[in-house]
């Protein structure tokens, strides 16, 4: 969700083919689809769990951004917009401080991952999501005991396994896996779905067959069932990745290749690194999770001309127009 929100803010400044590609990747109708901001507000409208979503933009001081683009970011996404020197370490430190504040110190920063400070950066966009939920029925720490966890290479590791006995929870058996849902809070609006592959199904095969339709169908088929022993490991995860290659694989290419961002600025910057960092912890009490996704718009360097493939050439007289030499280079080594 954090990545989608960040990219939707970038999309609001895109035009032409660039906007078409990004909107297709995000499954949105147009470049300024107000449903994204509305969804973020709706998700955070709960007292059952803690869920906060924050957006922020840091714009290079003096760079000509379109006023209606910045207004849309403020109005639709609730984003703060600050003028800053993106080439200074002070601004990079300020960005990292914002990340720590919005994620309750679970993510220590993202500036260095985005290549900041940078003299080429004209706009930094950030989205942060923080979630804290307690299980509707918590696990008793006294029932947590060491048990075996089979690793993907076939070996077994000893880990703390949380246990609940004789519980009624929503479960469904699907082709190759079972899904179980554990709710949070009294209202049970939010929940964790656990997808456990069948004994003979490797996890990569399950993930390869899982798409939005299959997930939704599985959720719709959940039915309460009596579980004699529910065992779940405690775990704590941290992850980060550059999202540029996955986004290209989804069809978002021109944004990174000098596409059309003139609705954002007449200077037409281009999208540089897009990075996500996440944290998630599951224990007897519940779940804490945080994510921050950042993107940097870079100053356009103008057109490029790289003779890095076979080419032809002429040597001519500019006064008479006569061609004196004409040739082709297919291998510069001669």
From TrEMBL:
The keyword Signal applies. InterPro entries: Serpin_dom (IPR023796), Serpin_fam (IPR000215), Serpin_sf (IPR036186), Serpin_sf_1 (IPR042178), Serpin_sf_2 (IPR042185). It comes from the Bacteria. Keywords: Signal. GO terms for cellular component: extracellular space. The keyword Manganese does not apply. One of its GO terms (molecular function) is serine-type endopeptidase inhibitor activity. Residues 1-332 form the Serpin domain. Pfam families: Serpin (PF00079). Residues 1-19 form the signal peptide. Belongs to the serpin family. PANTHER family: GH10112P-RELATED (PTHR11461:SF211), SERINE PROTEASE INHIBITOR, SERPIN (PTHR11461). This is Serpin B.
């Amino acid at each position: 969700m954090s990545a989608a929100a960040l990219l939707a803010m970038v999309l609001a400044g895109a035009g032409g083919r660039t906007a078409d590609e990004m909107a297709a990747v995000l499954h949105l109708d147009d470049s300024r689809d107000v449903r994204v901001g509305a969804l973020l507000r709706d998700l955070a409208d709960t007292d059952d769990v803690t869920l906060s979503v924050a957006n922020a933009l840091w714009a290079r001081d003096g760079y000509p951004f379109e006023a209606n683009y910045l207004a849309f970011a403020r109005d639709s996404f609730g984003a703060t917009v600050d003028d800053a020197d993106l080439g200074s370490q002070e601004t990079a430190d300020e960005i990292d401080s914002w990340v720590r504040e919005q994620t309750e110190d679970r993510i220590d920063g993202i500036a260095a991952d985005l290549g900041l400070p940078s003299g080429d950066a004209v706009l930094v966009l950030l989205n942060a999501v923080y979630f804290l939920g307690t299980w509707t029925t918590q696990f008793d720490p006294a029932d947590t005991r060491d048990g075996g966890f089979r690793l993907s290479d076939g070996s077994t590791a000893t880990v703390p396994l949380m246990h609940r006995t004789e519980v009624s929870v929503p479960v469904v058996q699907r082709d190759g896996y079972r899904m179980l849902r554990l709710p949070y809070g009294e209202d049970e609006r939010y929940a964790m779905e656990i997808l456990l592959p069948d004994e003979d199904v490797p996890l990569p095969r399950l993930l390869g067959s899982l798409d939005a339709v299959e997930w939704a169908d599985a959720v719709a088929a959940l039915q309460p069932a009596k579980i004699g022993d529910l065992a779940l490991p405690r775990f704590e995860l941290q992850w980060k990745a550059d999202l540029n290659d996955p986004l290209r694989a989804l069809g978002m290419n021109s944004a990174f290749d000098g596409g059309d961002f003139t609705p954002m600025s007449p200077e037409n910057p281009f999208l540089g690194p897009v990075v996500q960092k996440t944290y998630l912890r599951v224990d007897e009490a519940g779940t804490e999770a945080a994510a921050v996704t950042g993107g940097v718009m870079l100053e356009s360097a103008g057109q490029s001309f790289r003779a890095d493939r076979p080419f032809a050439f002429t040597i001519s007289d500019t006064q008479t127009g006569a061609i004196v030499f004409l040739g082709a280079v297919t291998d510069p080594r001669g």
